[in-house]
Amino acid sequence: MQLRTIDNDSLMDVKALRVEGDDLVIEGRIMGALPIQAVLSPDQARAALKLLDVKTVLFLLTLLFRRGK
Fold first, then answer.
1. Residue 56, CB-side half-sphere exposure with 13 Å CA sphere
2. Could you tell me the residue range of the domain that residue 17 belongs to?
3. Residues 6+ apart with CB under 8 A from 40
4. Beta bridge partners of 27
5. Residue burial 17-54, b: 16+ Cβ < 10 Å; e: rest
6. Which residues have a Cβ under 8 Å from the Cβ of 27 and sit 6 or more positions away?
7. CA neighbor of 3 nearest in space, from 28, 24, 25
8. Is residue 24 part of a domain?
9. Domain assignment of residue 68, yes or no
10. Would residue 22 count as lying in a domain?
11. pLDDT, tens digit (0-9, with 9 covering 90-100), for 11-66
């Protein structure tokens, strides 16, 4: 999976998601060069949910069924 910038440049290539204890570990490479392991804790996941409004939640639910570019 790739996360891209608005300019369509590669920001992060996600290679794996895994659970370690109560955390989600995201493994990948930033800008194709720097290996990274990012950790999403339960507190941070709850903080991310607070950023979502109803319109964004509805968009996320339909995102899987949309055609890619």
1. 6
2. 2-63
3. 23, 24, 25, 26, 48
4. 16, 37
5. eeeeeeebebebeeeeeeeeeeeeeeeeeeeeeeeeee
6. 14, 15, 16, 17, 18, 35, 36, 37
7. 28
8. yes
9. no
10. yes
11. 999 999 999 999 999 999 998 899 999 999 999 999 999 999 999 999 999 999 99
Neighbouring-strand partners of residue 37: 27
pTM across the whole model? 0.77
Q: What integer pLDDT is reported at residue 45 of this predicted model?
A: 95
Tokens of 42: 């339960």
Q: Total domain count for the chain?
A: 1
Task: Give first-to-last CA distance, the chain, whole Å.
Answer: 14
Q: What is the rounded distance in angstroms from the CA atom of residue 37 to the CA atom of residue 15?
A: 10
Assess if residue 14 is contained within a domain.
Answer: yes
